Every structure is written in C-alpha cells, then in structure tokens.
C-alpha cells in the first residue's frame, strides 16, 4: 500500500510541470485571441492571412466628442528609399501639404487601418542580387565606370591647370577690370608709365609672372606673361 501511494505521488509530481506549461500556452493563446478580437476586420484579416504585413497600424475604435484643429501650414513627407550599390535604386513616397485649415468635430466614431507590404521591394532586391551572382561581369563593369570617372576628373584638372597657365586670355583679358583680390593674383611690383597708365607685375597661384597695364579706371589695356614660374 505504501509503495502504491509513493508511485502515485511520483506520477503526480512528474505530471504537474507539464500541466503548468500547457496552462501557460493556453493563457498566451487566449491573450492573442483577445488582441485579435480587438482589431478591426481589415487588420484581423491581414494578420490571419499567410502573407502578414510588414507594417500594421490599426485603430479599431476612435471616439471623439469634440476636436478643434487650426493649422496654417503643415508638410508631411513619407518615403521609402532602398538602394543596392549603384545598381538599384527604389524610391516611393507620399507628400502632403496643408495651408489654413480649421476643423471642428463633435461626437464621431471611426476606424483607421494602415497595411503596408514590401514584398515587391524584397523581390526586386533579391532578383538584383541573383542577377549579380549569375553575371559577375556586372561588378567588373562598375569598377570600369569608376576608372572612367577618375580619368574624367583627371582630364578636368589638367584643363583647369592649362587655363590657369594662360591668364592673358581669361582673368587678364583686355577690356576687363583688374581685381587682384577676387582673381587670386598677388602684386609683385607697380609703376606708372609715360602715358599715365599703371603697370603692374602680378604672380598667379601656380607661380606664373605677368605684366598688366591698366588705365585710370583700372581697366586692362594689355597683359603679357613674363615667366611661367
């Protein structure tokens, strides 16, 4: 008899944790069902479907007794920007602008549900990655584009140096007003010739030495390069 009682006690002790775990699961399930019951029909259908939304904003019951809103200007920007290196760029957004709005509401009940899915965005990115995986030469093309860009920048820099080296046709062109402060030139020497015109020797930022002759209004009459360095 004592052996039988001990066996029954042991069986009960082993069964108790399983019952407790089952009770917790049932409580969680009831809580989830309670939350589902509080959702709006559209939100409930979205959550119960096989394709759950990425973003869900649900207001199942909105009750307003009195609401007064006065807005002079309101701007709202909502956007999605997905990028994958230089291969893919997806942009989607919504803009709203309000000016001078006055609203008065009393005794209103409403529902609001926002459901957003990014399935198409995921699929496009997945396809792009798969395309790169199947065609690695695309990445090589990107590096080629970078090389071309660097080469273009180098050509622009060379052209800029060439232009600076020939200031007599740009900054020191005949008929222009001489402005040393804005042109980046530094004054080396200044004299007045027999005709009453001012003769200046100026140095450019790259070391070139120039002679500039200006009239009384500081307008350039002539200019010439004395040395490149």
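^ structure tokens above, recovered residues below v
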């Amino acid at each position: 008899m004592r052996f039988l009682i001990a066996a029954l006690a042991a069986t009960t002790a082993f069964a108790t944790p399983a019952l407790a775990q089952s009770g917790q699961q049932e409580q969680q399930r009831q809580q989830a069902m309670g939350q589902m019951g509080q959702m709006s029909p559209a939100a409930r259908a979205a959550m119960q479907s096989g394709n759950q939304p990425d973003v869900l904003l649900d207001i199942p019951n909105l009750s307003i007794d009195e609401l007064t809103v006065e807005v002079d200007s309101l701007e709202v920007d909502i956007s999605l920007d997905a990028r994958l290196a230089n291969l893919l760029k997806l942009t989607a957004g919504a803009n709203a602008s309000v000016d001078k709005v006055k609203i008065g509401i009393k005794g209103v009940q409403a529902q609001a549900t926002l459901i957003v899915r990014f399935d198409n965005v995921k699929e496009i990115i997945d396809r792009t990655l798969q395309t790169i995986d199947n065609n690695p030469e695309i990445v090589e093309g990107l590096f080629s584009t970078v090389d071309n860009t660097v080469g273009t920048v180098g050509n622009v820099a060379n052209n800029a140096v060439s232009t600076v080296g020939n200031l007599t046709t740009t900054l020191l062109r005949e008929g222009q007003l001489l402005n040393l402060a804005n042109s980046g030139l530094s004054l080396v020497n200044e004299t007045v010739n027999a005709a009453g015109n001012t003769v200046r020797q100026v140095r450019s930022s790259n070391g070139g030495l120039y002679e500039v002759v200006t009239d009384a209004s500081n307008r350039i009459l002539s200019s010439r390069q004395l040395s490149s360095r």
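The first helix runs from residue 2 to 38.
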